[in-house]
Write a structure and sequence with these properties.
Layout (H helix, E strand, L loop, with lengths): L1 E7 L12 H8 L3 E7 L12 E2 L9 E2 L1 H11 L8 E10 L2 H9 L2 E6 L4 E2 L1 H6 L3 E4 L9 H12 L32 E2 L2 E2 L9 H19 L1 H5 L2
Parallel strand pairs: 1-2, 1-6, 4-7, 5-6, 5-8
Antiparallel strand pairs: 3-4, 9-10
Helix pairs in contact: 3-5
Bound molecules: adenine.
Adenine binds next to strand 5.
Length: 227
């Protein structure tokens, strides 16, 4: 079973949106599992302190290596096969290919950063792999972890029901999706494209392919250049 262990200073964020809809139903049905670990449980002193000022000066606070290491060591057995991810805007960008890989594995252990960052030494010493969900900065890794988990969990067999394969969706084919239409036949003077009402399945498939290509070229030409 796909198991997610989240190391965070805000365990109450979870399951959050992951407790609803497809992922929530999958969680309730035991198709995947989620546990949170409060990093502050391993904090130091009366205030359970987890961070300190950056060596060399500068703004913000940095999560201490010893505190995060203690939390990870208490929460993960040394032979836990799951990849250890650290959500961070410095990370390698998350892709659908990576999501597919992760979803087929035993799960993930995810560290959610806060403040200016995490002491580099614990990233190295515990083999954390930094992962970004995009070129913008969130106030912490929790929402990023939820994005990654949502993308993985929907691919777990049984979670999506009928849509199971997800095969013609955006990115799975290397193209963005073609446009969709449903009733009514005309909306505010805009008809559904005639070809979709023709019943000619070959023609419909060709039209959709051409639309997907045109939309990808207009919006994300970078996707067409990928190997
Ligand atoms: N934490 C803050 N910003 C982030 C981002 N863009 N991706 C992943 N984790 C983050």
């Amino acid at each position: 079973m796909f198991r997610a262990s989240i190391f965070t200073l805000y365990p109450d964020f979870f399951p959050g949106p992951l407790g609803q809809s497809l992922s929530g139903d999958g969680l309730a049905r035991g198709l995947w599992a989620l546990e949170t670990r409060q990093i502050r449980d391993h904090g130091l002193g009366r205030h359970k302190s987890v961070d300190d000022t950056p060596a060399g000066g500068g703004p913000g606070m940095v999560i201490r290596a010893d505190v995060l290491a203690a939390s990870l060591d208490a929460g993960l057995l040394p032979d836990d096969p799951r990849p250890r991810l650290l959500m961070s805007p410095r990370g390698r960008p998350l892709t659908q290919a990576r999501v597919r890989d992760l979803a087929q594995g035993p799960g993930v252990a995810i560290v959610c950063g806060r403040f200016e960052g995490v002491d580099e030494r614990v990233i190295e010493a515990r083999g954390l792999e930094e992962v970004s969900i995009g070129d913008y900065v969130l106030s912490g890794g929790e929402l990023a972890a939820m994005v990654l988990l949502d993308a993985c969990v929907r691919l777990i067999p049984g979670v999506m029901g009928k849509l199971e394969s997800g095969a013609d969706e955006s990115f799975e084919s290397g193209l963005l999706e073609y446009p969709h239409y449903t009733r009514p036949r005309e909306f505010e003077g805009r008809p559904i494209p005639e070809v979709l009402l023709s019943g000619d399945h070959a023609k419909i498939a060709a039209w959709r392919r051409a639309q997907a290509q045109a939309i990808t070229l207009a919006r994300r030409p970078d996707l067409l250049k990928r190997p």
